[in-house]
Amino acid sequence: MFGVILAGGSGSRLWPLSRELYPKQLLNLYAEKSLLQSTFERLNKFIPAENIISITNTKHLANVKMQLGKLSENSIIISEPISKNTAPAIALGIKYIIENNNEDETILVVPSDLLIENNENFIQTISDAQTFVDKGYIVTFGIKPNYPETGFGYIYAENNIVKSFTEKPDKQTAENYIKNNNYYWNSGIFMFKASAMVQELKQYCPEIDSIIKNIKCSNNQIPFTEFDKMPSISIDYAVMEKSKNIAMVELKSDWKDLGSWKSIYEVSPKDKNNNVFVGHVLDKDSKNSFVYASSKLVATIGLEDTVVIETEDAILACKKDKTEEVKQIYETLKQQHDDTQKVHKTVYRPWGFYTVIAEGKGFQTKIIHVNPGQQLSVQSHNYRSEHWVILSGMAKVVLEGKDHILSPGHSIDIPVKAIHSLQNPFENDLEIIEVQKGDILSEDDIIRYEDIYGRV
Amino acid sequence: MFGVILAGGSGSRLWPLSRELYPKQLLNLYAEKSLLQSTFERLNKFIPAENIISITNTKHLANVKMQLGKLSENSIIISEPISKNTAPAIALGIKYIIENNNEDETILVVPSDLLIENNENFIQTISDAQTFVDKGYIVTFGIKPNYPETGFGYIYAENNIVKSFTEKPDKQTAENYIKNNNYYWNSGIFMFKASAMVQELKQYCPEIDSIIKNIKCSNNQIPFTEFDKMPSISIDYAVMEKSKNIAMVELKSDWKDLGSWKSIYEVSPKDKNNNVFVGHVLDKDSKNSFVYASSKLVATIGLEDTVVIETEDAILACKKDKTEEVKQIYETLKQQHDDTQKVHKTVYRPWGFYTVIAEGKGFQTKIIHVNPGQQLSVQSHNYRSEHWVILSGMAKVVLEGKDHILSPGHSIDIPVKAIHSLQNPFENDLEIIEVQKGDILSEDDIIRYEDIYGRV
Description:
The structure is a homodimer.
Chain A: E1 2-6, H1 35-44, E2 52-57, H2 61-69, E3 76-80, H3 86-100, E4 106-111, E5 114-115, H4 119-134, E6 138-143, E7 154-158, E8 161-166, H5 171-179, E9 183-193, H6 194-204, H7 206-212, H8 224-227, H9 235-240, E10 246-250, E11 256-257, H10 261-267, E12 276-278, E13 281-284, E14 290-293, E15 297-301, E16 306-310, E17 314-319, H11 326-335, E18 346-349, E19 352-360, E20 363-370, E21 374-375, E22 378-380, E23 385-392, E24 395-399, E25 402-406, E26 411-414, E27 420-424, E28 430-437, E29 447-449
Parallel strand pairs in A: 1-2, 1-4, 2-3, 6-10, 12-14, 13-15, 14-16
Antiparallel strand pairs in A: 4-9, 5-11, 6-9, 7-8, 7-9, 16-17, 18-19, 19-20, 20-28, 21-27, 22-29, 23-26, 23-28, 24-25, 24-27
Helix pairs in contact in A: 3-6, 6-7
């Protein structure tokens, strides 16, 4: 069996905790592991790492690699050069599997932003579904609804055979649905033989079929111009709602959609006033509210049905029944080219992370954290000088070919145009302050050189 | 005439914008000038600066000096070694005036946290009150109430003679009061001859009278042990509510009490949905709300009657009718020794200000801003080294007796125990990054030395 993890989402509805460049699936919302890492581990219990393919976006590749790299060196990551919804992403996963294996393989497709805790029941359900997959069905997994949610899609099935799909219904329709035992929530999880899905794509979405044929996935160099021709379409709309060949298996495990702040509130343990408080929160008399303090004190008095999310550079305060509209705030910020939509002040890299702590005319200050055994590329800058002060750990700085070993309190100047590299070949974390000076301070002002091993 | 400005308040109800060490009267809430500065300028239109005495607390002395120093070098500032409410503060002001002048002087006492814009009418009212002062009355100024506010004190007067005071009444009582033309709000402004108030203090609060006799105010070295014996009592309770010698003059100017976030909301101009937004706020569908973003983006969706105040290190989200309870959050933080009650990350000093931008084990990083022509004291530290990087402007650093002139990008190490001083004798602002390193990082680790002029 193969697993395909859909890990390209933008997570706009969980802004400001999720950002365009740090989406929901990368967040540690509930545990020490991110949703993506938890998803990988869930599949890895019954699928070997080298058979698990995560489909993400070029923008998230570094972060996805870092997170999955901590769990296994062997899993496959394919990055789309541009986001195109779920149907093209699934098509990429299938193509990779067919290129390396054969069309008879069973494929389990899972989103990377679900919370499932009962892994035994999950595995049992997957095992139950195999019968239908073996018969050539595309299997979708349904959740028995326990209230008339209007934010989910519904499946109507008779004797495990799907008769119809309905996108988010209105309240009245949802209420009728839950009185009828044949309606289920659409979990977003699918399972099929590669050949079955290829057949349906050929029939119902020939544009995808014709483009994917010309893309070679195995070297993970998806050509932009080809892929950009893909329609931006969900697998539900492209195939599931049209195919006559869909079976439904009820998901026996728990299943929590973390699509909005309201849904996260709903799945969280609450205090006696029905509040969820995370982080440094000081409350007086609030009710039914969700307050998430990531770095600062948040004091609340008398709030009702309100969500407050505090991050380093942006705060959201929102009525709890309006959290779906966070997406619109995110889109507005995107249109305004406001970076609070795009990045956190802290940016994660394969070698560690940095946080911009102060900016002003002609200068920028960062704290740079380099993980043990990691190094930044050999580089130079045309427009800025840098000044580094070691805060903790030991640094090896290569400056114009000369090595400098620096310990806490030591500092070094990196002049404009000087070729340099910051390295941490030691066993402890390295933390430095970097002060950039120059009239032009841009992440683009960087020239990269091959290191002594020929790596760029 | 003399003016006494009461500038020792803690401003707990405007937390988190006000802090124990940066109270309400020092804030620029409405204009380029702080409430204290506006108050000083209001008096200075008819009282010479050298006759205006501001009574503050040792904790605020540096900030009060800096703010008033920008307006005049001649005004008098007296700092209490410990806060003791308004009666002891007013007694100090009177004592200073008597020491330097005589008991016949007229004294106008004003709080430093009122907003009054119509200064002409204010001056006219003061002039009207002089008749009563000359007759030996203590004059209190009343505001004609236009709604049954329960948060203010009320004065009952007949033919300008006060018959009684009532502290914050209940709703029903307040409604009865405003139907009766003889009730006024207590403005907190008083006017009297020194001798008249000395007489009343002697009669109704002999503890204050007996202590103040032994304190010499002119050298602004109020002895802690003496002053600490003062009862902590308001002038209303100590004298006004007991004296038979009180006149009331109606204040003809506007008068806005800025005692809580709700009152600030009420006096602010509103948008079409009755919202007040200050700073970088992105809203969707909120109503009757007040959002103040001091440094970050605050996005709001569907809020109603809610106050959100964002500062660098603390956020308040509060139902608008509960803003009086902010005081209790402030007190809780104080009990928890949480510094977010006490200081902003930015700390103002006579020479400029600094902001702590990052802290960690064994290090602390500040941006230090030195105003032109200013310098920090000559000092050394027993437990920490410092490393300074010039960001903008020019610095003169005196290190172990040697001068260094540094320009942007230059850096210098200040070793443990080295005697040093940071100076900006130049015309532009100086901004530096300071990285402190050491096992003990405390503002108390400082030894100060006389500079070449003999100043400490």
